[in-house]
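Problem 12. The chain below contains 390 residues. Write out its predicted structure in token notation.
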Amino acid sequence: MIKERVTTHLHKEYANLFEIDANLDRLVKKIELLNYVNPLNIEKEKHRFFASKYTGNPSFHYPKLKFNGYKLHRLFFTQRLERIKDEKIKKLYQEVIYYYSNMIQCIETIGSAKGFHYNSLRVFGTPTEKDVQNARFILHFPDEPASTEMEKIYSAEEAKSYFEDFGQQYDFPLNIKFATHLSAEAMVSNSSQSLLIKKNTKFSKNQLLTLANHEIGVHLVTTFNGAEQPLQIFSNGFPNNVETQEGLAVFSEYMSGALTLKRLKELAYRVLASDSLIKGYSFADTFDMIHNHYKLNREEAFTITLRAHRGGGFTKDRLYLSGLRKIYKRYLKEDSMDVMLTGKVTLEFEDDIKYLQHLGLATNITHQNLAYSKNLNTNKTLDFILNNLK
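Solution.
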């Protein structure tokens, strides 16, 4: 393992840094937000909402917290960062602690509409006017003709087999688990280094290709690259890493030829759903906008609305489209993506990552994203859209 190859000299020279990094690692293991923000009663409340003819706002229940928020906050802020002599690294770790602290407050207030939404805004922000304009621009394009590749005919078991075959291209273990309480069809659990598949759901051929390149090609690649770094912050996450991580993941869909206009429109709907939160829309209001105004079918409209309103108002989904725009611009400049795959990192901290690499405190990546090696997209409409996002 690369971690084991970090020299004794480095450990001695940066002993305080490694101690603080290890302390933060122990604390962060308790606060994976997605373990708490997905409701436990999605199907029941969906049935009730549909039965009410889309008027009765759902009442969601969430997992119980497995930590004491106040104690955890205190432990984060007792880290003696003044012992880190390198000012640049010290500043990075200050921002890391503030970010994790905000994440604790997010988790503590799940289910409290105003409290959680306010904390979500602090961590994930709200769509800018540009984001909303980009979303509306995408939604102006007419839908593509129906295709057999979009028909949901594959079971969760068949999806598991597909992902196992796909994962053989990568030099890391692929641990796949079935889960019930997911708001997405599949997602990566960073803490357990596993791919979770939603039970009792159907997948299309295109969806399998999309999820494989998104979840395995990026989220698991950065999970395993991060785990091999000398410092645990690469594994646990740099501040505001979601936009970069999701941008990389959707860009992987594009490069693999999996991205469709339908998928791009889904990301646009997510921006509008996130934007509706700041306007004070209820669950039923957001659903009405997407289902009745934009004519998206009720199942997909419910999922998008759920993702935005879970917890009390979750704005994370606004970042997929802006993240894709930033990563695509990077691609056009022919900048390497390798630094962005070193772990759960952020574009804005690229100089810090290179600085850590220069000091020997970060290493080059072991696992590449295979889709990035060749552009397989043949959809000219997608190219036109991506080239014209503001």
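Discussion. The two ends are 42 Å apart (CA to CA). Students who got a different answer should revisit the alignment rule from Section 12.3.
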